[in-house]
Amino acid sequence: MTVSASPSPATPPAPGQQPEQEPDRFVLPLVVRVERTAPPSRTDALETAARAVLVLLSDPRTAAEDGVWHKRVRLWEERGIRKVVRRARGAEWRRTEPLEGITVAGRATEVRVFPPVPLDGWPRDLARLQVSGTELAETEPVAAPEAGAPVLWLNPELEMSAGKAMAQAGHGAQLAWWALDEAARAAWHEAGFPLAVRPARDAAHWAALTTSGLPVVRDAGFTEIAPGSCTVVAEHPALRTAKD
To answer: For the chain: N or C, fewer Cβ within 10 A?
Structure first.
């Protein structure tokens, strides 16, 4: 995957904040390609969604103050980083390609990420796509994360659909991005945003992660799980080094 932008620091809001009284709320659309004959594996889809969020955040159209997406992304960040994952196949997928956005490829997955849209103002070709039913299985054994790779650890005690987990992985990647300094962001960007998404090994591992000081995603509770649930811990080597 090639990324062509220089990262730009952002000031993050409280993670998962989505005040109901706030007008002009935005949502970040992600669309995963799920063809009937060759659906992606769950882990590959989660990892590709997380990288797609990072690609959008570092794209010049977002990062540069005069970028065409900059203002929308900043408003979205200020008002809560809500993400919605939809699925598309065949002609549905092809209709998403002319819309402004970025397609990111994983090992056998394609995810298209779009700049934030108003919560009640989705483009027609995105609004018609299905949210439910994004159930993906593993198509091959999932290896342990590579040594030194950033890892987005999932809460092993929560059950989430693939679409929900993709959004949560995207949140985790974004919180890691916010927590890194400019040099670490640049290095991650230049490397093509390598990362892994894995369930925490057990309850003890998860407890250690959530009390480590690393970025933790706490869900707003709009779908599937209770408000305030911890869903992802973002472990990046540069964040561990900064803490030591």
So the answer is: C
